[in-house]
Design brief:
The protein is about 45% helix and about 15% strand. It has 12 helices and 9 strands. The protein has a 3-stranded mixed sheet, with helices on one face. A two-stranded antiparallel sheet has the order 1-7. Strands 3-4 form a two-stranded antiparallel sheet. The longest helix has 14 residues.
Length: about 290
């Protein structure tokens, strides 16, 4: 069976959030008065696994129920419409009663009052999917993705619709995009694993835990790598923890397609941080095939 990790690493992903290029992060670290030391370890130590959810990037951040990118480039929780819950309750009752057509009409009516509402658009798609019209649901899920491309649910539900349309390869790519936005999402991983025979994969959830770790060391940070493919992750996290300038982006409206390339099993990379006489840290990388 194909490796789901390989697919997730090599997939072409639409990355709407502001993105710093590796060379930008390297420049920030090079010009920092802090010391950044990069080293390799033979395997992921057990304590990394136990503390993985406390050391994810950004440090100890709780997951947002509906993340949204603001005009200032900051990610925050989507605003809540107070009166919507009361209006939504009877529609949800129809959905729970499996009255799909009535629920669909209810969601459509609410969307007329609250156009471009992300969660309502997803629910509208769910009603169509439950009603046996996955092609209609797919269009609505993709419309929801445009409303909030940061959230993982639009891509997860897209995968469900594509499975119903008997398009497993496209479904697998959609699930990869969902996990790129919310790694370790339990219900996403569970759904993928339950569809293993259809998708041609088996999920090993440990693969989604970082094989890198960043620890403070004096006025700087140590970056330990158990897998060179996590080098960029370690660099991002170290810069995020140590440098205020790495947490903001000059152009928050930058959108682009990103192709994430993986390294072969025989590839390795060693990174050394060398402090100059002036106390500035510079980073040298030597790749070995």
């Amino acid at each position: 069976m194909a490796s789901f990790l390989a697919l997730a690493v090599s997939a072409v992903l639409l990355a709407p959030p502001p993105v710093r290029e590796p060379k930008e992060l390297i420049a920030i670290v090079e010009n920092s008065p802090r010391t950044y030391a990069f080293k390799t370890v033979e395997r992921v130590p057990e304590q990394w696994r136990q503390q993985a959810f406390l050391t994810m990037y950004p440090q100890s951040a709780s997951a947002l129920s509906e993340p949204r990118l603001g005009p200032d480039g900051r990610v925050s929780e989507a605003p809540v419409i107070e009166e919507l819950d009361a209006l939504l309750a009877p529609v949800e009752e129809k959905f729970e009663a499996r009255a799909w057509a009535e629920a669909e009409k209810g969601y459509a009516a609410l969307l007329e009052k609250y156009p471009n509402h992300y969660a309502l658009t997803l629910n509208w798609g769910d009603a169509a999917l439950k009603d046996g019209r996955p092609e209609v649901a797919l269009k609505r899920y993709r419309a929801a993705q445009k409303l909030n491309p940061l959230d993982h649910r639009g891509f997860f539900y897209e995968g469900s619709a594509l499975v119903a349309l008997k398009k497993p390869k496209e479904a697998l790519a959609a699930y990869a995009r969902a996990l790129a936005r919310r790694p370790n999402a339990p219900y996403v991983l569970s759904a993928i694993d339950s569809l293993g025979d259809v998708l041609g994969i088996r999920v090993r959830t440990l693969r989604f835990l970082p094989a890198a770790r960043v620890d403070p060391n004096g006025d700087g940070f140590d970056v330990s790598l158990a897998d060179p493919r996590w080098m960029a992750w370690g660099l991002c996290k170290a810069a995020w923890r140590g440098e205020v300038s790495a947490r903001t982006v000059a152009d928050p409206q930058r959108w682009r397609l990103v192709t994430v390339q993986g390294f072969g099993p025989r590839s390795a990379a060693r990174i050394r941080a060398i402090s100059s006489d002036a106390g500035q840290s510079r980073v040298e990388a030597a790749g070995m095939i």
